[in-house]
UniProtKB/TrEMBL annotation:
Pathway named in the protein's UniProt entry: Amino-acid biosynthesis; L-tyrosine biosynthesis; (4-hydroxyphenyl)pyruvate from prephenate (NAD(+) route): step 1/1
Record carries keyword Transport: no
Single GO molecular function: prephenate dehydrogenase (NAD+) activity
EC code(s) of this entry: 1.3.1.12
Superkingdom of source: Bacteria
Designated name of the protein: Prephenate dehydrogenase
Keywords: Amino-acid biosynthesis, Aromatic amino acid biosynthesis, NAD, Oxidoreductase, Tyrosine biosynthesis
Domain Prephenate/arogenate dehydrogenase: 13-290
Family statement drawn from the similarity comment of this UniProt entry: Belongs to the prephenate/arogenate dehydrogenase family.
Organism annotation: Cellulomonas aerilata
GO biological process: tyrosine biosynthetic process
Catalysed reactions, semicolon-separated: prephenate + NAD(+) = 3-(4-hydroxyphenyl)pyruvate + CO2 + NADH
Pfam families with a match to the protein in the record: PDH_C (PF20463), PDH_N (PF02153)
Length: 374
């Protein structure tokens, strides 16, 4: 594709988006900017008109009801089933999908209501941000991300939602609702609780302690900025699977607390109760094993990269100049992370490259006058 061109879409409009927050507006932006007729609805008129102003589509009118082909429900999980049911009834020839982060709860509620589910396809794009609302939406939110389809709906309905996911740049994955929810507890919902708990410990921390915070704390707490209302709804809807993981985590935590209690009582390593230091080491080593299992870029296998850290003056154009120099050195940048010095007008760009390109890149950047941090 040439620069500035946009990929054609196979999804046929009108597509109705109900709930024009982060997810719904991102769906609308991606489709509307590529010519699909998107009609928007939100119980908050401010959210709906803001989504319109951002370019995500046009406000729905009663006249649109007859010809809507696809409805995307993007409201909090606890009200998703009610909205899906209302949309199935209001648009008798449309396929209806939802993007709620929890699938079993929604499906159970729909089944209990006795509604005909042939036109309903439960789905969940595994893409999001720690921000909510239409203003946080981005059209490429879903690019390269898994989009789970939970196996409900007739084949034509499933195809429509699979096509939507593909049009938005996502990778469709089929999984049943219970399997999805157990997976989410482990890879999304418990990490959210853990991030919130660690960040919550900081609320009374002395300023002097916080001024020492480094990238490790920022990495672990990024998602602690998430919306409490949305996450209460997600955690309550997936309470069983989340609780199961938290109980296991509590046992792990208790083992570390006991081991450190022994270390605290000791006068040196030789007097620490047998096994305590091993418990601490095993905890960190298990973490090494777990993190190595997280897939790498583009869903490929986890890779070890060489990190080259470069000091970047905090001035316009400096980061762009560095990236251009990396390109000129013929090295592919696998990842980039910026850290900021708390006291100096200087940033640190941590550039991840393939291990066998590290020495070459360091030499090339040094030759171009960049200061490298060891
Ligand atoms: N935030 C994230 O990163 C992700 C969220 N999801 C799921 O997407 C759904 C939406 O989440 P966000 O967009 O983040 O939330 P959001 O808070 O940004 O937007 C939700 C919108 O739904 C509207 N709404 C609430 N009740 C409504 C109703 N009865 N009818 C019409 N509109 C209504 C709200 O006014 C709000 O604008 C949730 O089910 C969430 O679990 C899925 C993937 C990622
Ligand atoms: O910010 C992140 O890393 C996320 O993982 C966001 C996210 C939040 C909720 C979902 O249901 C899916 C994705």
């Amino acid at each position: 594709m040439t620069e500035g061109s946009v990929a054609p879409v196979a999804t046929r409009g009108p597509v109705r988006v109900v709930g024009t927050g982060l997810l719904g507006t991102s769906v609308g932006l991606s489709l509307a900017t590529r010519g699909v007729d998107v009609v928007l609805h939100d119980s908050s008129r401010t959210a709906m008109y803001l989504a319109r102003d951002l370019g995500a589509g046009r406000p729905a009118t009663p006249d649109d009801d007859a010809d809507v082909r696809l409805v995307v429900v993007a409201v909090p999980p606890d009200i998703t089933a009610d909205v899906v049911r209302a949309e199935l009834a209001a648009h008798p020839s449309a396929v209806v999908t939802d993007v709620a982060s929890v699938k079993g709860y929604v499906l159970d509620e729909l089944r209990a209501s006795g509604v005909d589910l042939r036109r309903y396809v439960g789905s969940h794009p595994m893409a999001g941000r720690e921000l909510s609302g239409p203003a946080a939406a981005v059209p490429d939110l879903f690019v390269g991300r898994p989009w789970v389809l939970t196996g409900t709906g007739e084949p034509d309905a499933v195809l429509a939602v699979r096509t939507l996911a593909t049009d938005l740049g996502a990778v469709p994955v089929t999984m049943d609702a219970a399997e999805h929810d157990a997976a989410m507890a482990l890879v999304s919902h418990v990490p959210q609780v853990a991030a919130s708990l660690v960040a919550g410990r900081l609320t009374d921390a002395p300023d002097a302690a916080l001024s020492l915070a480094g990238q490790g704390l920022r990495d672990v707490t990024r998602i602690a900025s998430s919306d409490p209302r949305l996450w209460t709804s997600i955690l309550a809807a997936n309470a069983g699977p989340v609780r199961d993981v938290l109980v296991a985590l509590r046992a792990d935590l208790d083992r570390v607390i006991d081991a450190l209690g022994h270390a605290d009582l000791a006068t040196g390593p030789e007097t620490v109760a047998a096994g305590a230091l091993g418990t601490v080491a095993t905890t960190i080593a298990h973490g090494n094993t777990g993190v190595a299992r997280i897939p790498g870029k583009h869903g490929g296998a986890h890779r070890e990269y060489r990190v080259v850290t470069v000091l970047v003056p905090d001035a316009p154009g400096e980061l762009a100049r560095l990236l251009a120099d990396v390109g000129d050195a013929g090295v592919n940048l696998e990842d980039l992370r910026m850290e900021h010095s708390p006291r100096h007008p200087m940033g640190m760009a941590a550039i991840s490259v393939l291990p066998d390109r590290g020495d070459h890149l360091e030499n090339e950047l040094a030759a171009r006058g960049w200061r490298l941090a060891s």
